[in-house]
Amino acid sequence: MPPRPIYNKKRVLQQAKELAEKQNGVFNMSDIIALLPCGRATFYALIPQDSPEMQELRDIIEANIIKTKAAIRGKLYTNGKDTGLIALYKMIATKEEREAISMVNTDITTKGQSINRYEEVDLDCLSEDEQQQLINISLKIEDANKG
Question: What is the residue-averaged pLDDT of the chain?
Answer without folding.
Answer: 81
